[in-house]
Here is the input.
Amino acid sequence: MTLTRPFVVLISVLFFNTGFAKEPILPIAQSHDLNAEKVALGRKLFFDKRLSKNNELSCASCHQLTRNGADNKAFSDGVNGQKTTAKTPTVYNAVFNIRQTWSGARKDLFDQVDAPITNPREHGTTWPEVVHKLSSDLALQAQFKKVYQSPINQQNIQHAIASFEQSLITTNAPFDLWLKGDPNAINNEAKKGYQLFKDYGCISCHQGKNVGGNMFSKIGHFGDYFADRGGVINDADLGRFMVTNNPYDKHVFKVPSLRLSTIQTHFFHDGSQDNLDDAIRIMAKYQLGRSIPAQDIQSIKTFLSSLVGQHPELTNTYETK
Ligand code: HEC
Ligand code: HEC
Here is the structure.
């Protein structure tokens, strides 16, 4: 049977909505299949300072949810005045990343909860200590029994926090509304910026639902980023090499999401840039071997700002420099 042309058009409209399936960036949809009790328990734990040595800090100390799911520092403050060796990434939309942390050392959100608890530069404690402290809280113990039908243990703490993190997704970004077919959801400057983002080749690494987070790449395809940066090269700078021990993975990082980059204050794993214009300039230079005029940077920034979606906890959407 030969389909007539109007019929084919109708089918493609039905299947592809307005065609966003052809775009390299995908909209974020609301997730519906989360267990509300586990999410609520996980939220409580995310803000619980008993998860750290001396009850000094919680996940939310570094991953500030009103802000952008991170803090406004190059390196964050861990227990006992220690500093992290990598910039804190956002927890918003982290669920969409292929792996967790800059080097991809952690498989998923569940696995990742383990990392900060025992890291001496972050929570600096041990699981037995955390389980012991939380277990003496009878109300919390009762809540765990109700939600997990089991006493507090490492596994259900990790599970609850990871469930909460799955709810940290930003929806209805103007760009997503545009992808879904509203031609007026973003202005012409943002449309121009998106075209430039594709034309320069940013899209070859920053793509998919999270505009990043779905592949690894070296920093410094053109030029030696680290030699030019100067300073000591630490473990965090070695990136994925620390996980695989493969020399080709030196300075290879998970491509970060750009969903919230315009409400972020510091950029790159080493937090070396505090200005988005400079971060974009560095990307063009070291990843694409190009220089990029200020006018194009402005358009790309306007496009990037249209990627910022909504979440009830995300209230402080101040602009970056
Ligand atoms: C002292 C600051 C600090 C605290 C406290 C902290 N984190 Fe982090 N978080 C970081 C840093 C720094 C990284 C990046 C580590 C790396 O790449 O090696 C990170 C990475 C992550 C990531 C990976 C995100 C991505 O895109 O790869 C998640 C998820 C996360 N943390 C969740 C948590 C949870 C859950 C807690 C509480 C149990 C927590 N963090 C406590 C600083 C912190
Ligand atoms: C070849 C892959 C690749 C290309 C092309 C690329 N990037 Fe990146 N981008 C990365 C990687 C990897 C990082 C993380 C580098 C690091 O932290 O050291 C990154 C980081 C960034 C950051 C900082 C995000 C953060 O959370 O710190 C911004 C902003 C950015 N890229 C924008 C762009 C723009 C705009 C373009 C096009 C001009 C571009 N990138 C092209 C791979 C790429």
In short: The chain has two domains: 36-166, 174-305.
